[in-house]
Amino acid sequence: MKPGDTVAITCPAKKLPRNIEDAVKLLESWGLNVILGETVHASWNQFAGSDELRTNDFQRFLDDPSVKAIFAARGGYGTIRIIDRLDFSGFINHPKWIIGFSDITVLHSHIQSLYKTESIHGQMPLTIREGSEISIETLRKALFNEEINYTYTSKANNKSGEAEGILIGGNLSLLVMMAGSVSEQDFSGKILFLEDVGEYLYSIDRMMWNLKRAGKLKNLKGLIAGGFTELKDNDTPFGQTAEQIIMEHVKEFDYPVCFNFPAGHIADNRALIFGRMSRLKVDGQQVDISYLGIDPKSSLQSQLK
Fold first, then answer.
1. CA distance 220 to 225
2. How many C-alpha atoms does 205 have within 13 Å on its Cβ side?
C-alpha cells in the first residue's frame, strides 16, 4: 500500500458498541482514504446487521479494485455465518489486505486454505483506542510493507531451536472450528501462531488434543504462543497453565516453541503477517521472529522485557 490508497471498514461479525472515529482519524493520518460499510452502523440482534447485509457489505469491498485493504471493525462471533456466501473471484484478481484477529481467524484460515494470500493479524478499529503505540506502529508497517523484526525475552519454559516456514494461525478455538471444512488450512511445514481468550483451561487442553490427534502438530516447523488471557478454571483446578498444556502436547516434536509473544486479546497486539515466509529462532528465553524476502529499508526492533 501507499498513501492515497483507499481502505474499507466493515463488520463481518458482532455489532459495534460505539463509534470508531478515532480509528478512522488514525488511518487518515497515514494518508489513507477510508470508506465505512453499512454494517458499521447496523444492528441485528448481536450482529452488525443480518447475515445478508454483512455478506453484501464485505462482498462490495472484495469486488472493488480501488479498495486496497479491508479492516474488520471488530471480532466477536458471526464471520463463519457468512464465509460460504462470499465470492473471492474479485479478490483473486485484485488481492488486498484483510486485517483483524479473533473471529477474523475464519477469514485468515479460509484465505490461506484456498488462495495462499497474505493477510494481517492485528489491531482492529474497535481495539485501536486501547492498543499500545507500538502495536499500532507494527500495523502501519505491515500495511505499507515495511520490515518488521521482533526480538523479545520470554520468561516461560520455551523450547530452543531455529526454523523457517510460512506463518499461519490465529485464535485456537476458531482454528479448531475450521476442521473438516474448505477453510481448514494445511499445517504441515508451517510456523503456527496460537492465542485465545476466556476459555477454560480444560478446553485449551481439549482443543490441543484435537489438533494433535488430527496430525496438525507433528509436522509443524515451529510454534508461537501469544496471549492466552482471561482463562478460567473449575472448582477442582485443572492443574496446569496454558503454557504447560501447550508444551505437554508438542514437547515430543523437534521444532522450536516459544510463549508470551505480544499478540492476541491484549492491548499490545503486535501485527503478524500470515502467509509470509518467516524465521523463528528460540534460544532459551531469547526469541527472534523475522520475515524473509523483505527489502530492509527500515527496521523495527521490538525489545520486550
1. 13
2. 12
CA distances from 251 to 108, 248, 254, 255 (A): 27, 6, 8, 9
What is the Rg, in whole angstroms, of the alpha carbon atoms belonging to the chain?
A: 18
Residue 298 — left, alpha, or beta (φ > 0 → left; ψ -120 to 50 → alpha)?
beta
Mean pLDDT of 226-246: 98
- pLDDT tens string 184-208: 999 999 999 999 999 999 999 999 9
Among residues 230, 204, 182, which one has the least CA distance to residue 83? 182
Interstrand relation of 272-274 and 277-283 (parallel, antiparallel or unpaired): unpaired
Q: Can you tell me the mean pLDDT for 53-72?
A: 98
Q: How confident is the model over 238-269, as pLDDT tens digits?
A: 999 999 999 999 999 999 999 999 999 999 99
